[in-house]
Design brief:
Elements (H helix, E strand, L loop, with lengths): L44 E7 L13 E8 L5 E6 L3 E6 L4 E5 L20 E2 L6 E6 L3 E6 L4 E5 L1 E3 L2 E4 L6 E6 L6 E6 L3 E6 L4 E5 L23 H4 L2 E2 L10 E6 L3 E6 L5 E5 L14 E6 L8 E6 L3 E6 L4 E5 L15 E6 L8 E6 L3 E6 L4 E5 L14 E6 L8 E8 L3 E8 L10
Antiparallel strand pairs: 1-2, 1-30, 3-4, 4-5, 5-6, 7-8, 8-9, 9-12, 10-11, 13-14, 14-15, 15-16, 17-18, 18-19, 19-20, 21-22, 22-23, 23-24, 25-26, 26-27, 27-28, 29-30
């Protein structure tokens, strides 16, 4: 995710929406295999590092920076994590979620009127068990086990706050796509992507960089005749080719979207491509889906994207990067050039990796043995190296809090990073707080 400018707090209350689009009749119903929701099979603990000036480290009001990983005490049953611009969402084995960090636009989805309550993890009230969480710059979302999606907070565009719905900011969870069963969600900085059980892709949020894949350039600004309604209402992305396509996985970058077609494995992309970060030869914004040939020939386990670069993990555990080289975010060394095609990271070639993530100008990889590597811009200490220097090739993140722990997941925020770790034994860190 990207760091964002200071925002004004709002006290607007959320109203649950009861309407939404239904499945298009012209597309034949097709059952899609449930994608990887990035859960850990074993409950673990939270590790954080970077800037915490608005509580995004979850360590209380007094801790505003950590240059090496620090543990958030009291929770040992976390199975999934999502770092937003200045907040985090974490999923417990019970299906309950915890949030902490900046809440000025409602991204925490809970009451933080008690001073300092936003700086420590607190629960969000939802009507059923959660199976996946995501976070953008100013919004959060949760996928429930029954296929409903709830979101809260706000989207933003170049003019400022857009609101989450036409009612404005939503400080508490509202249902986003009623009557449609969703199997995976993904959050960019200011857009939300939803994949339903029949392989259809829906989007909502900011459209200025083409990240919705369904709004024409002339209509992607809020000042057009139609206003923000078409952008804020989740709607179907149309793939204009002869056969009807079905998708079995989705990922969202900061300003872009990736969707995997279930038969061919082709990766369709749309959004910002000014540094070739979505793998298209023409470095212009793509407002409608295109096949990215750079991703052809491999099965992708996870794709993450920052402001101007992408990191991808294939099914053999190899890590690839794409896009802008500045600040070392590609991890290809000091003499590299911008990567116009997916390029393997040499320093990780001897490892099998199980997770990757992108910060705004940072990259992270988790190895099968549980080590965390980071590289890129180090200004906010979010590389966890103990320093604030840029790193041009992957380095092993070390620290006392990592001793005896195995990292299994990582997520990059605007100026901070959050990781999920289990003990080496891996069997006894499942107790609830």
């Amino acid at each position: 995710m990207v760091s964002v400018p200071p925002r004004k707090a709002t006290k607007r209350s959320a109203v649950v929406s009861s309407k939404g689009p239904r499945e298009p009749k012209q597309i034949k119903k097709k059952q899609i295999t449930t994608p990887d929701l990035r859960q850990s099979a074993t409950g673990g603990v939270l590790l954080v590092f970077g800037q915490g000036d608005v509580g995004q480290l979850g360590l209380g009001e007094e801790i505003v920076e950590k240059t090496r990983p620090a543990t958030i005490s009291g929770y040992q049953d976390i199975i999934a994590i999502a770092a937003g611009g200045m907040h985090n969402v974490c999923l417990r084995k019970t299906g309950e979620i915890l949030t902490f960090g900046c809440n000025d636009e409602g991204a925490l989805g809970r009451d933080t009127s008690v001073e300092g309550s936003e700086t420590k993890p607190g629960p969000v009230d939802l009507p059923a068990k959660v199976v996946q969480v995501t976070a953008g710059d100013s919004h959060s979302a949760a996928l429930l086990e029954d296929g409903r999606v709830f979101a809260w907070g706000s989207f933003r565009d170049s003019h400022g706050t857009m609101g989450l719905t036409m009612k404005g900011n939503e400080r508490f969870p509202i249902e986003m796509l009623p009557n449609i069963k969703v199997i995976k969600i993904a959050s960019g900085a200011d857009h939300l992507v939803l994949l339903n059980e029949n392989g259809h892709v829906y989007t909502c949020g900011c459209a200025e960089q083409g990240q919705l894949g369904r709004i024409a350039p002339r209509a992607a600004n809020r000042n057009t005749r139609r206003g923000m309604g078409p952008m804020l209402s989740p709607d179907l992305v149309q793939f204009k080719i002869t056969q009807k396509l079905g998708f079995d996985d989705i990922w969202a970058g900061t300003y872009c979207t990736f969707a995997k077609e279930n038969h061919t494995g082709n990766i369709y992309v749309f959004g910002l491509n000014n540094y070739y970060q979505i793998g298209l030869e023409d470095p212009v914004t793509q407002f409608y889906p295109q096949i990215s040939k750079s991703f052809s020939g491999k099965i992708w386990r996870h794709i993450g994207s920052g402001q101007h670069h992408t990191i991808a993990l294939d099914d053999s555990g190899k890590v690839f990067v794409l896009g802008r080289k500045e600040y070392g975010r590609l991890g290809l060394g000091p003499n590299c050039v911008d990567a116009k095609q997916l390029t393997a990271v040499p320093a990780l070639s001897s490892f099998k990796c199980v997770d990757v993530a992108a910060g705004s100008a940072q990259s992270f990889a988790v190895t099968e043995s549980g080590d965390l590597y980071s590289w890129g811009m180090g200004t906010s200490a979010q590389l966890g190296t103990g320093e604030e220097e840029d790193v041009e090739e992957p380095v092993l993140v070390k620290g006392k809090q990592l001793e005896g722990k195995t990292i299994v997941r990582v997520s990059g925020g605007g100026q901070h990073t959050i990781a999920l770790a289990i003990t080496r034994a891996g069997k006894d860190e499942t107790a609830d707080k």
